Amino acid sequence: MQEIEVIRSQRRTKTVQARIVDGKIQVRIPARMTKAEEAKVVGEVVAKLERRTRSSVSSDADLMSRAHRLNTMVLEGKARVENIRWVSNQNSRWGSCTVVTAEIRISDRLKNVPDYVLDSVLVHELVHTFIPGHSAQFWEWANKTPLAERAKGYLEAYQRWG
């Protein structure tokens, strides 16, 4: 569980905001809120923030299931998925694929990203099972992922400031 810092604001009258700052969850609330109201809204916005910023995929079996679903929905079943797993030894890559064996490894750093970001990385690696390299044709397929461009931006920021 991440540390939660509640900031009461005299200027804030109705809205509540939660965001992650320096690894801790900051929740801004109106100063006039009672302790009971604070507890309720803080719980709600923190849960919403965590749902938005964490992948729902945690096990290797979940990863395999998601890969099969994405292969069907995004890649028209073209990818070969033999084995896929989370790994902890990838610090400079988000994922990797051994084309010959269709084995995909996904960095466990991605367990804390939104689903659309994980989906983008999974599709990227799945495309490698039928198109090696990063040709224009490769990117045509890899960019079919919903929110692919947004995911690239997220990963770029995560790499820098993660």
UniProtKB/TrEMBL annotation:
<protein>
    <submittedName>
        <fullName>Metal-dependent hydrolase</fullName>
    </submittedName>
</protein>
<dbReference type="InterPro" id="IPR002725">
    <property type="entry name" value="YgjP-like_metallopeptidase"/>
</dbReference>
<dbReference type="Pfam" id="PF01863">
    <property type="entry name" value="YgjP-like"/>
</dbReference>
<feature type="domain" description="YgjP-like metallopeptidase">
    <location>
        <begin position="87"/>
        <end position="149"/>
    </location>
</feature>
<dbReference type="InterPro" id="IPR053136">
    <property type="entry name" value="UTP_pyrophosphatase-like"/>
</dbReference>
<keyword id="KW-0378">Hydrolase</keyword>
<dbReference type="GO" id="GO:0016787">
    <property type="term" value="F:hydrolase activity"/>
</dbReference>
